UniProtKB/TrEMBL annotation:
InterPro entries: FAD/NAD-bd_sf, FAD/NAD-binding_dom, GSHR/TRXR-like. It holds the Pfam family Pyr_redox_2. GO terms for molecular function: flavin adenine dinucleotide binding; glutathione-disulfide reductase (NADPH) activity. Coiled coil: none annotated. Keywords: Disulfide bond, Oxidoreductase, Redox-active center. This is GSHR protein. One of its GO terms (cellular component) is mitochondrion.
Amino acid sequence: QVMWNTAVHAEFIHDHADYGFEIPSVKFSWRTIKEKRDAYVRRLNDIYESNLKKAHIDIIRGYGKFTADPEPTIEVDGKKYTAPHILIATGGRPAVPSESEIPGASLGITSDGFFDLEELPRRTVIVGAGYIAVEMVGILSTLGSKSSLLIRRDKVM
């Protein structure tokens, strides 16, 4: 959301002259937005975790699986937990091809790596056609990175 809003502001600045506004040169600082975005995400995570604790919800981090026990039970890192309501927040990890599948694949980053970038890349290639890929290419392009979107299928459905 923060990066999308950043791109929206960049578009507004780009269009100001069409609406009669004269703006001297405007500089964009990736470092500033990265620091502010990271602080915002940390603050949101703290708020969510605090709200869960206030609601007396236990957070158990680790790799888990459901068991065959008669009551709703999960096992996380060898310890069993039983409760009337269990929420599994699986998270997700992108599939990264091997070097043998795509030479140079190790030079790429995942969408998670986007948040670690210390500066705006001069050029980017986004692989995929999901909403995250389309958002990423739009954001990066709007902020000044020469960006391309590659789709991994012969046809778009």
